[in-house]
Amino acid sequence: MDCNGWLIIDNKLHFHIIPFPGLNIEKAALDFNKIDPYSPLRTAIQEGEALKKIFYTVQQGIKIQSCTKAIVVAHNAAFDHSFLMAAIKRSSLKYNPFHPFSIFDTATLSGLALGQTVLAKACMAAGIKFDTNSAHSALYDTEKTARLFCEIVNRWKRLGVTDCNALLINGINSPFLCIFVIMSHPPIKLPLIHN
């Protein structure tokens, strides 16, 4: 959140991930996204290494904001949350900073606030430019999802929804208002939003 109480994107993390052994990768998905997960040009790192870096950054945000857990924000968030939790389990990491089941789903929120559930259409309805040629890139979609979430929350503030304002302004002591945006399309690319 900025000094005027508007929700903004604070930090970004961006990693290319080496596929874990036994990963079932759909060729059609790779063709669609134009990703070669084994290309040496990707400078990919192991999933566990990326998660450790993510955990560190998220835990720092949790500490700064006096939160206890981070909430995943994603478009169709149940899928992304389950993908993240499976990656954490595979990596046998401890001290998971993410809430085990609470999520903010921008597909649902944008359906409510904007009447659109498709990311591109929701962004356009919110006045956020969306390049369909860049869509389905994990980083691009994640950045648009983060902007969309901020716009929805800020739109409520502009409309004078005082409960939302109080929640965000007083959220510094709330255990569930450190927000982390994720899109799990390979490669994993993740921005972080602090309240």
UniProtKB/TrEMBL annotation:
Residues 1-158 form the Exonuclease domain. GO terms for cellular component: cytosol. GO terms for biological process: DNA replication proofreading; tRNA processing. The keyword DNA-binding does not apply. The keyword tRNA processing applies. Keywords: Hydrolase, tRNA processing. SMART domains: EXOIII (SM00479). One of its GO terms (molecular function) is 3'-5' exonuclease activity. Transmembrane segments: none annotated. Pfam families: RNase_T. HAMAP family: RNase_T. This is Exonuclease domain-containing protein.
